[in-house]
Write a structure and sequence with these properties.
Elements (H helix, E strand, L loop, with lengths): L1 H10 L2 H8 L5 H26 L6 H7 L9 H22 L5 H7 L3 H11 L7 H17 L2 H4 L8 H28 L6 H22 L15 H24 L2 H8 L2 H13 L5 H16 L11
Helix pairs in contact: 1-12, 2-12, 3-4, 3-5, 3-11, 3-12, 5-10, 5-11, 7-10, 7-13, 8-15, 10-12, 10-13, 13-15
Amino acid sequence: MLVLGIAVVIWGFSFSLAKISLLTFDPFELVTLRLLLGSIAGLFLSIGITKWAPSVANSAQVNISRGGFFSKDQWRQALVIGVFEFAGTYLLYTWSLKFLPSGVIGTLTLMTPVLTYIVGTVAGIDKLRLKAGFALALSLIGGALCLPLAAIFNNFHLENQALWGTGLILASNLCFAIGNVAITHLEMRRKWNNALTFHGQFIGFILAGTVLVFNEGFPKLEMSKFKIQNWILPLYLGLVATGLGFFLWNWGVQKVSATKATLVGNLKGPISVLIGCVLLQEHVSLELFVGLVLLFISIIILPREKRLQCSN
């Protein structure tokens, strides 16, 4: 749970930073750059863990340290992770930033646990339970209480571009849900390893780069893109938020479950609000604390499904 919490704190800054980065980079350019930098960071993290923490390393990571990149029995899993958790999630999410304020997008991501639970139930990972439904409801209510919804949705009208942006972010949430359920599915069958994170990111980079070239052509070489200050945010988004953040997140998902992990993920919005209050010395509302309590309760009461004992 600790690694999930660290990932959530890292991601708490991503919504606004990605929005600012879009002033310089096109959406698909930013996604391609993030996934490339993320895969590089993930590679070094995998090698580092293999070298310095062999107790948590596995055979796939040992192959990486010996110079291997993809093993024959691993490319299908990496493709699923790359298509859904990275390429699909990031392309749709970043595209939605062109049509919706970052606050609205952050609020709509509160639906991710619900979508994850639905996908997990269809995949046979989760079971329909009243207690699980109650936990999901608490998470939605708690997340809503933590966010300044009145300010976020002020003058927001669900029409034209806003409707399109809403569809994009919900589709992004669904892709993220499928990716997380896939991780739980692989872990239940003892086929998951942490190296799949950067494998998936690299595949996501290839897919995102392909979409970029076919949709917008090769990246435009405006002089503004070569200014050092314009690369600070993309470097953070790529190396830290995407590379380190997803390495920790996927590591945490395999330790718990997809649905429970996404419930923890709902803390990223409130945490970002709380950090802003601390840094700016603003008043912290009672609703924020009540919402955080409900979010923690939802995580605690969510029933844990039994893991499969087979290895097939």
